[in-house]
Amino acid sequence: MRTSGAVALTRSSARDWVEATLRSGATLYDAACEMSQGTMEGRGVVHVVAAPTGKDQRWAVRRYLRGGWIRWLGDRHLRWGTPRPFQELAASVAALQRGVPTPSVVCAAVYSWGIFYRGDLVTEYIADSRDLASVLFGVSPEATREGISHRIATVAAAGDLIRRMASAGVRHRDVNAKNILLHGDPEAPHAMLLDLDRCVISEPPASTSITPMYRRLERSFAKWEGRTGRPMSEVERRALRADPEPHR
Fold it and tell me: Which end of the chain is more exposed for a tag (fewer CB within 10 A), N or C?
């Protein structure tokens, strides 16, 4: 779908809303700000909205922001190569086809702005979920057997996700504690991958090295320990690489 200065790839169920929003001159993120039912914190604010499809669904809408030493660019990205929203859409579709759990993309949109573009992504909202950093380094669980077993199960679920990714040929170049989402039973949680625009998908499908992704996540753990003063136990660390049910 194209309108003046904007290009969007969208599901048919969201087409009417996307088209009406873009033709009004607004961005999808602008519209989400107006209809927001709540927010989540990532690199920027993610808005949770009721899906305007007449169904009992919610979507998460985020704007792509720069990080690292070029964070001063904010939400501006050079118009060079494939835009990040479209990279993430393609990676998400491939990951799901290969059995790697990740929230399904509803729409990816790009807005031209001189030599730059801005980009938005709309995904299905996963209710009752928390990212790995929040679980391990947010509000500390009570020092009980249940609290400890919950933390171990959480780290083990993250390790299982990484093994699934490696087996499926999905390599994430920036696996960290903020882009792994946990949901379901706290004692047996399910992990999902977020922020797939930096994923490399092997073609044809073939397993990829698992060790670099383990190490990146372990470095992320170390950063959060230093930032919060909440160290992980050795048994929690070991749970990441334990593989009770290898994915072949």
Answer: C
Tokens of 179: 């882009």
Strands 77-78 and 2-3: unpaired
| 64 vs 69: CA distance, rounded Å | 16
Is 248 inside any structural domain? no
**DSSP string for 5-38:** TEEEEE-GGGHHHHHHHHHTT--HHHHHHHHEEE
List b or e across 88-111, with b for residues whose CB sees 16 or more CB atoms inside 10 angstroms: bbbbbebbbebebbbbebbbbbbb
User: Could you list the residue range(s) of the whole structural domain that residue 180 is in?
Assistant: 129-241
Please check whether residues 117 and 152 belong to one and the same domain.
no
Q: What angle do CA 11, 13, 19 make, to 5 degrees?
A: 75
Q: Looking at 174-220, which runs of residues are DSSP E strands?
A: 180-183, 190-193, 199-201
Q: How many Å apart are CA 52 and CA 39, to the nearest integer?
A: 17
> What is the count of structural domains for the chain?
2
Structure confidence by residue, pLDDT tens digits, 184-232: 998 899 999 999 998 999 998 889 999 999 999 999 999 999 999 999 9
Other Cβ atoms closer than 10 A to 198: 15
